[in-house]
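Hi! If you just cloned this repository, the fastest way to understand the data is to look at a raw example. We've pasted two of them here, unedited. The first protein comes first, obviously.
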Amino acid sequence: MVCMVPLICRIRGTVILQLWYKIIFCCLYAGGLVGIHKYAGYNVSIPKDILPVISVVVGLLLVFRTNTAYDRFWEGRKEWALLTVYIRNLARTFWIMVDDHNDSSVIVEKVTVINLLVAFAYATKHYIRSEYSYEEEDLRDLIAFLPRTFFPSSTTPLHEQESQVKQIREGTQGNIPAKKAPPPPPPTTENAKKRRASVPYVASSYDSVPTNIPLEISYYIQSYIKTVKDRNLIDNPTCRILDTALGNMINCLTGFERIRRTPIPMSYSVHLHHATWIVILIVPVTWIKDVGWGTVPAIGVAAFCLLGILEIGREIENPFGYDFNDLNLDDFCQIIHKECVAIVAQKFPDPKEWLFSETNRPIIANAKSAVDLAKMNNDQIMIMLNAEKDYIFSDKHPHEHKVKFNNTLPV
């Protein structure tokens, strides 16, 4: 169970820093109304009857806004989990199923294409953050050998891309500096913040043009799948598995683009802000008569609740940035990288080495090793397996998996 005291006292990662000046404004506004009502002789209070209807409508709108934003956040996390699954499957299949015949050149090929899978993850991270440089620290070494091409981005409006490409082709941006993302808010990790602040970009024309680097990488991975198929290093079922997994990676990339390029409609966002502020500005004049100066702290609490929900929805609707509450994409990519490095760090084991090991005792109720069991005939093994069943369902089993069957029907 989470301790509530640290959460109550927590400031970092909350929306308080985005709200404090708005709350102060609301309190000053309420204090001014109370002063006018009490000391200037003006009756600024209005009946409370109109407030409940407006409050209910605004409350429903706020709930819908927050749920929509959280759905986008959660969908982004699910898409990244699926991308991780497909990269793991591809890396495992490339390493084990592509027959290298102990040829060092094929081993180098497999390591290279698995590195491209890692590069796909890093490139996707930067792509959905609108960072289009080939010289990102975590990406450049993995794709340094690939030709630079141009695939239109789906995270930037097409007319902007066409304008920038045209300028580059005309030579008007021959010596432009590399485009960097706007100064980010606190990143997901402190290391990411230090890294991006200390590593200079190597400028190139492509650094200023939105380009779909993950899609480029998938092009080379697909070409390798075709090559190993043509060389008969994989069979048809394995080729289909690789094609399907790579296609699913592109599906994930498209899912990220959909989240990134489908904002909450402007009319809805603007209307919700207007309605929320109308409620906040009306509430004090309905409380002045009964609450007096207590209206000031009360409106501060109300503003904190309503504006806080509004700000939370705005913050989490794009989960791919550098905000404290955004998805930790840096960590996700590093996990994928380390897993792929671990896969290629060892040759896949021969099943004979571990299936028929002296320490492998497949039948728990019998202490015989797999080597001894392999020397027996089928009838002897089946007798032992039946004894194993009785042992597992008995009280003697250490895990106490007690399952009792009653074949009698109730009368």
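Ok, and the second one:
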Amino acid sequence: MCIVKFLDDENSVAVVPNKWILEDGWCVWPPYEINPQKILRAVKQGQIPTKPDDWKRCKIEVVHHYEIIIHENLQNSDRWKKSAYSESEADASNRCLRKRGSVTTAEGLKCGKMALLNYTSPPTSLDGSKRCQTVMQKPMPASSESASASIAGDQNVEAPYVVESNRDSVTYLFPQPIEKSQSGFQREVIIVLSDIKLRLSRLESAVATKKLTHSATDWDDEEFALLPARCDEDLQEIFGKVQRDKHFKKKLVARFGSIGGRKPSLHVNSILSDLLTDELAVEAVKEYKKTPSVITKDEVNSFIQTWLRHAKDRIQAKAKSDNLTSHCQDENDSNNIDGADSEDLF
């Protein structure tokens, strides 16, 4: 896996298999923009394009290889374990030296600033881990600050501490370079970037679908003035117009198709609410039971029966809501009148 940055779009970053990366900084991308799940599945499986001409070619820049990140994570983990073990050995050695009456750390530092004689990167052991290295320091004039500046200015190395000190030399233990384990952070970045990429793909597909779907305002014309039907005559007129006028039938189907819903039951309820009023639904319950159903799906038929059966409940709930609204409005009006009278008194 690789983290790549698409040069055509500076804000676009993705995780792609190595098989998709071509020479000269090019990458192929699957033609599944409207199906993010297929893109995610193709990335996980490292799908090889069967028809390369159908895949999109993009100019990219490789940011990092995922295998390198895993390797660095393992190295950093082993390195920190060895460092902790070395520090415990150094503490034990320091305690032994102090028992022998050696000069303390503070006294050793008073001898003058030290010059680094030999410092190399920590050697690599057979198991791939890096151990700390002990180097020797000799005193030099206090006016020279090159060694201290080089040690303090290096942001990748911790400040050395004294293991043993006397009048002739000072032994320093240089810890490993501060290479904080970034692999965990990088892994989190990869996960977040993948999630962002997937969400963007879903958003793009949703926007594309919305562009193809007519909005509700497109259907507010005179042809649908009878919707929702308030009586049986309005309903019969709509049915007759559907049978006579193919253009009206197509527009009516598109109107109902644009009505959404998280579940099929909500979708059916929204269509029925757009087609019938609750008062007409109460009258249509008996007729619907008598007439043989032409609906092929039993689930949809059950949704329609449930919606018609609860028409009275919706009417009662609407009446209660209207009464409560009018009651609150009357209270507000009375409060406004009382407030005006109190202002007149003053």
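That's it. A detail worth noticing about the second one: Strands lie at 2-6, 13-16, 26-29, 56-65, 114-116, 133-139, 161-165, 170-174.
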